[in-house]
Design goal:
- The chain has one domain (about 5-90).
- Helices cover about 40% and strands about 25% of the residues.
- It has three helices and five strands, in the order H-E-H-E-E-H-E-E.
- The strands form two sheets. Strands 1-5-4 form a three-stranded antiparallel β-sheet. Strands 2-3 form a two-stranded antiparallel ribbon.
- Strand 2 (about 45-50) and strand 3 form a beta hairpin.
- Helix 1 packs across helix 2 and helix 1 crosses helix 3.
- The protein is globular and about 45 Å long.
Length: about 90
């Protein structure tokens, strides 16, 4: 992983490319943009597995990394979660 951009940078670039300063972007659309920007980091065979209320779920690890990056960006005040699954860039302060 050395030499690769942090996930926060990849996600921020994807949001900018999708016009997230003007509209809320669905997470599925963000995943597609991330895959276009950083295809080598989007390996669907490396799975993240979790158990919720006794039921097991799995998904590609890179998608978990995208959501983790969104949370980090939200804590820094760079993005806003408008509602579940919809993200946008925070308006610039004037």
């Amino acid at each position: 992983m050395s030499g690769e951009r942090p996930w926060t940078e990849v996600v921020l670039k994807a949001l900018e490319s999708l016009g997230a300063d003007r509209r809320a972007v669905p997470i599925a659309e963000l995943y597609e943009a991330v895959r276009r920007i950083a295809p080598s980091r989007c390996d669907d065979s490396y799975l993240y597995e979790v158990e919720v209320r006794g039921k097991r779920y799995s998904e590609p690890r890179w998608r978990r990394n995208v959501r983790d990056a969104l949370v980090k960006l939200e804590r820094r005040g760079i993005v806003i979660r408008e509602r579940k699954g919809l993200w946008r860039l925070t308006p610039p302060q004037t």
